[in-house]
Amino acid sequence: MSEKAKSEEFDETLMDNESQEEQNEVNETEEVSPKEKLTAELAAEKDKFLRLFAEFENYKRRTSKERMELFKTAGQEVIVSLLPVMDDFDRAMKELAKSEDKEMFKGVELISNKFRETLKNKGLEEVDVKQGDKFDAELHNAVTQIPAPSKKLKGKIVDIIEKGFKLGDKIIRHPKVVVGN
């Protein structure tokens, strides 16, 4: 055999070996590919499950919080509509204190106290406002401004016209105040 023929035969053998190795790699890849594919699908499904689980937990937490808030303020409309009645009781108590009939005053006072306690048990609290407190626009509703009677009351509450109330943490009626200017 000539050198050229040997070289060509060697090249063919080399090409056949390389082709055989490539075929083996393809076969190995095909054998591994389904496993890798299943592993990737499993990882994707696990990720999908974890995201769905986290979303469900967030949903449960959110609805639970909304339900608690609803229970806290379930009677808000009724309580807000009863606030003028409470104001009327306060005005009646002031007028009855001036009268001579102490028994009537005592009876109205008992009813007023029972009414207040019932609303307090439902979560109603009075917003604490005093004359001389600093005016806060988020807490107070300024009805008017008047010249301050003293320099100490400038920018502060001079008079309280109507009491404010909160139900739980939410203010349902802001106190109406007069501010010194």
Descriptive labels:
single chain; elongated; 6 strands; 181 residues; 3-stranded mixed beta sheet; 3-stranded antiparallel beta sheet; 15% strand; Nucleotide Exchange Factor Grpe, Chain A, domain 2; alpha+beta
What does this structure look like?
Helix content is 62%, strand content 15%. The protein is an alpha+beta fold and 181 residues long. Strands 1-4-5 form a three-stranded antiparallel beta sheet. The protein has a three-stranded mixed beta sheet with strand order 2-6-3, with no helix packed on it. The mean pLDDT is 85. The longest helix is centred in the N-terminal third of the chain and has 70 residues. The protein has a domain of 57 residues: Nucleotide Exchange Factor Grpe, Chain A, domain 2, CATH 2.30.22.
Compact description:
With 181 residues, the protein is α+β, with helices and mostly antiparallel strands. The protein has three helices and six strands.
CATH class placement of the domain at 125-181: Mainly Beta
**Helical stretch count?**
3
Task: Report strand order across the widest sheet.
Answer: 1-4-5
What spatial form do the alpha-carbon principal axes imply?
elongated
Distance between the termini: 119 Å
Proportion in β-strands: 5-15%
- Examine the coordinates and then state which fold CATH places here, giving the name of the CATH topology of the domain at 125-181: Nucleotide Exchange Factor Grpe, Chain A, domain 2
Radius of gyration equals 41 Å
Please report the total strand number as a whole number: 6
Order of helices and strands: HHHEEEEEE
Determine the CATH superfamily of the domain at 125-181. Answer: Head domain of nucleotide exchange factor GrpE
Major β-sheet, in short? 3 strands, antiparallel
Mean pLDDT: 85
List segments where confidence is low: pLDDT < 50 over at least 5 consecutive residues.
Answer: none
